[in-house]
Specification:
Largest sheet of chain A: 3 strands, antiparallel
Distance between the termini of chain A: 74 Å
Structural class of chain A: mainly alpha
Radius of gyration of chain A: 24 Å
Number of helices of chain A: 5
Strand content of chain A: 5-15%
Oligomer: homodimer
Strand order of the largest sheet of chain A: 1-3-2
Shape of chain A: elongated
Number of strands of chain A: 3
């Protein structure tokens, strides 16, 4: 199913909103791992880890492959590029807004200085 | 209350996991707005918009101020720097993993070529 950009961002930001899931991504960045290894590493039940991996897989951030009885997890096809682009665009808007505020403060300061000088004169 | 980095990332990624809330942040990047204006803009009830703004405020992404009967919303103190840093670090790990895979593929291709040549000889 092809999701819209907004739906993809909803799913991936939601997947990232959990420390264990972020930890799993960092771990898989260092090498592939089975669900059992991940459960051990994060001191979690197998069922709990399966749920987390399921959420990450749904978001395309992790891919899994079952060989025999072992399910191996690796980094998925999505590389957070859309998420980075969204955050970056937003930060630029943000920075522009704060620059504007800085300018207003600068104008106010100049006026203040001018009025202060006039008062002293 | 001072939250840990992990708790802050949980809260902010969760706040970002909704198209309306991302839209509100983009809108406030263009200028401050009242809850009523935001509700109109996103064709939502006042109660619905209040909830979304509450989530964004909790995450420090929006700040609000009530003057008389009007609550004005503006961008909050947190500028997604920690979120960008996390994603960036993760993407670097990711890129390194894919580079490794590329190298493995390169080695396999070279071997393939070598064996191919040996067979022909």
């Amino acid at each position: 199913m092809v999701q819209s950009l907004n739906a993809r961002l909803d799913t991936s930001f939601s997947a990232l909103a959990d420390a264990t899931r972020r930890g799993v991504l960092a771990q898989l960045g260092r090498g592939d791992a089975s669900i059992t290894e991940l459960a051990d590493k994060f001191q979690m039940t197998l069922t709990g880890m399966k749920k987390h991996v399921g959420v990450l897989e749904q978001a395309g951030l992790v891919a899994t492959e079952k060989i025999g009885r072992v399910r191996t997890c690796k980094l998925g096809p999505r590389r957070l590029e859309e998420e980075t682009a969204w955050i970056e665009a937003h930060r630029q808007l943000w920075a522009a807004r704060f620059d504007e505020l800085d300018k207003v403060v600068e104008v106010l300061k100049t006026k203040e200085k001018f009025h202060g000088r006039k008062k002293r004169e």
